[in-house]
Amino acid sequence: MKSEKNIRIALLGFGPVNRSFTEILADKGEGLYQRYGARLMVTAAVDSTGGALDVEGLDPGRLVKAKGFGSVAGYPEKGQTGLQGLDALARSEADIVLEATTVSMQDGEPGMSHVRAALSLGKHVVLANKGPLVRAYQALQSLAQDHQVSIKFSATLGGSLPTYNIGVRDLAGCTINRVDAILNGTSHYILSSMNSGVTYEEALAEAQRLEIAERDPTLDVEGWDAANKLVILANSILNVPATLDDIERIGITHLKPSDLPLTMLGTATRNDDGGYTLAVRPERLPEDHLLAALPPLSMGIVFHTDLVGPLAMTVNERGPKPTAAAMLRDVLEIAATGR
């Protein structure tokens, strides 16, 4: 076993992802300590109603139980109704902040303020929330560098897919000529169903029944979620300072049976000047494309480079736990390297 290292964690947002992260700690915390020498301690957790705070560590199982009764503010003795994220952050003594509040693409809030405050206080940040990165990727990276901390975001690039690690580390030295990506599971499920003869309305209703589509599916079916992920991918892997305005975006709600079969695809195509053309739109894939037979409940990505590949990764996942596992991956990397 490695020497003991206590890693204090603040959980901002206690929806499905951070709740699943906490469940993982309850189930595997001791095993993670034995394997990695890092004792992961939750010192603050905040949801929309309030929070719980204890710099000596909150019990993960009791946090999950309190949330099951309505809010982490119901945590015995340490719960506080009305506790806000910024207050909890300042008092948590956290080394790492896990930000997974509800996404606001208009201004990135409240996640943007949480991330800026955490970095300014010298705390590492792990994100499942795409909003701050889409709105201010370059500025947040500069802020992290100024305070000698890291901002990590594996979970924003396709759940548990190791998109960032492959694109940056494992393809180091390669020129990426094209990226093809199916990074929104909802639109992929709906289009896969439509390709089999189901109407859009029927496919959406089934996706909502399976809880893979929101009551308002606009972000998914109009391509906004995939475009958000493509912005992050372009900035972080392709070194292109892209924004949503740089992406051609076409949704799937207008499609007719005669248009099919199609796949909702995000693409980044390298231009002669070294820049990239970015798009999210329904496309007809050739039968030999590595994503052509991707199952309905899956996501996947293909890197086309000058030296390696095409290199494809796919994942079949449902529920928030794989996304929480991606956050855990980032936390353990920070614990091991300090960055």
Q: Poorly predicted ranges (pLDDT <50, ≥5 residues)?
A: none
Quick check: average pLDDT?
A: 95
Choose one word for the global shape.
globular
CATH class of the largest domain: Alpha Beta
Radius of gyration, Cα only, in angstroms? Answer: 20 Å
Number of helices: 11
The CATH architecture of the largest domain:
3-Layer(aba) Sandwich
Relative helix content: 25-40%
**Total discrete domains:** 2
CATH topology of the largest domain: Rossmann fold
Give the helix/strand class.
Answer: alpha/beta
Short summary:
The protein has 339 residues and is of the alpha/beta class.
What does it look like?
- The chain is an alpha/beta fold.
- A 7-stranded mixed beta sheet has the order 4-3-2-1-5-6-7, with helices on both faces.
- It has helices at residues 16-36, 60-68, 85-91, 111-120, 131-146, 163-170, 185-195, 200-209, 218-221, 224-236, 321-337, and strands at residues 5-12, 38-46, 50-58, 79-81, 96-99, 124-127, 151-152, 176-182, 247-249, 263-270, 276-283, 298-305, 311-316.
- β2 and β3 (50-58) form a beta hairpin.
- α1 packs across α11 (321-337).
- It has 2 domains: 5-160 and 321-337, NAD(P)-binding Rossmann-like Domain (Rossmann fold, 3-Layer(aba) Sandwich), CATH 3.40.50; 163-316, 2-Layer Sandwich (Dihydrodipicolinate Reductase, domain 2).
- The protein is globular.
Keywords:
seven-stranded mixed sheet; six-stranded mixed sheet; Rossmann fold; Dihydrodipicolinate Reductase, domain 2; 339 residues
